[in-house]
């Protein structure tokens, strides 16, 4: 892929090459990475890694992880490999449909599986013109299948964590509820007084704790957008600039 840009994440600690047009990673994968309670020596699999932003942010915050990723689009997978090399991360990237994982991955179990699935059900939305963006944003594989694959790849007591649009929360909870326990939801709202637009959802294999709905995390200060002025809250600035964790409350 020749038409690319290199963008700084975590205040320049990570430099990520991605397509100049098509799907470009924003703050969502950074927030997903920040929410993962991984520890040195554990293993992580990202489903649908794109150019690798989420898993590389996580690997930067928690040194000593064993990280792997699956990406359907070969051009994006190649960028993920290159980004890992440029940022000195050993990342095992597989070009595959998550519904047909290679044997090597089907023989492994992971402490954490993370995913930022396509947000839009194309039965109720319009397809993107760019094919790369459409594959990343338009749901072709059902959300239920994303959850099924994640659950199968987990170690006992391992965690699956998803970031998704708030309106898909019922679908996500239904899919996770039959396979995972100890479900938790952390809503992400753009500003105080606004409905959450995104949710972080975590489940644990063999978990038995009661469902928890946490207080929303507010991303921006003020009640409205004020031009091009940055308005992230102090918590969000620490996550996006310094790589601070976004912990689910105990």
Give the arrangement of secondary structure elements.
Layout: E1 4-9, E2 14-19, H1 28-34, E3 43-47, H2 53-61, E4 66-71, H3 74-86, E5 91-95, H4 103-106, E6 110-115, E7 120-121, H5 131-137, E8 138-139, H6 143-152, E9 154-165, H7 169-177, E10 181-189, E11 198-204, E12 212-213, E13 217-218, H8 234-242
Parallel strand pairs: 3-4, 3-6, 4-5, 6-9, 7-8, 10-12, 10-13
Antiparallel strand pairs: 1-2, 9-11, 10-11
Helix pairs in contact: 1-2, 6-7
What does this structure look like?
This protein is α/β, with parallel strands linked by helices and 250 residues long. It has a domain at 11-162 and 169-181: Vaccinia Virus protein VP39 (Rossmann fold, 3-Layer(aba) Sandwich), CATH 3.40.50.150. It has helices spanning 28-34, 53-61, 74-86, 103-106, 131-137, 143-152, 169-177, 234-242; strands at 4-9, 14-19, 43-47, 66-71, 91-95, 110-115, 120-121, 138-139, 154-165, 181-189, 198-204, 212-213, 217-218. The strands form three sheets. Strands 3, 4, 5, 6, 9, 10, 11, 12 and 13 form a nine-stranded mixed beta sheet that branches. Strand 4 (66-71), helix 3 (74-86) and strand 5 form a beta-alpha-beta unit. The radius of gyration is 17 Å and the shape is globular. It starts with a strand and ends in an 8-residue tail after the last helix. Residues 124-139 have low confidence and may be disordered. Pfam families: MTS. Residues 31-124 form the Methyltransferase small domain.
